[in-house]
# Entry
Amino acid sequence: MGRQFDGWKRVPAASSPPLVAVPLINLLTASPAFNELFREGMALVEEAAAYLDGRGRAESKALPRPAALAYATESMRLTTRLMQVASWLLLRRAVNEGDLTPGQALTERHRVKLARQDLACPPGIFDLLPPSLRSLSQRSLRIQERVIHLDQGLAAAGSPDALKRPSEVESQHERLKAAFSD
# Structure
């Protein structure tokens, strides 16, 4: 008639290699999203340079003394911020294009000083600045935040401690094995 059911039998699990965490941040910095961030950042650098060398110069001369001082301070900080962002973006692009290894990029990272900056002047004075400079400054702060976030993720993923941290998936896998073992 057929075989009779003997009950469930445990099949020995094949030995599998331990699960390893994959730092997704590396995939993100090599993705089309990074390419868009790169284009956006470099376009902002060009836009700021054109503004500060052209129309911004004329606008700054028409400002009252306190606003002119704030303009000079904010334009210097804007330039510094954007040069830091551009340097970081170029470094990451070099990794994506194979000109640098991720390890070399981490070594070179100390040359790019990414430092969070707020606006240089109080809101009341900032509001006296030309709208174009205010817009450039605010956009540069947003892109700077995005770059700092990516940089911190890359630094964390590249640290020796990142490999020592248990994988969340492996932890769940171990809990499931323990729950279903005799």
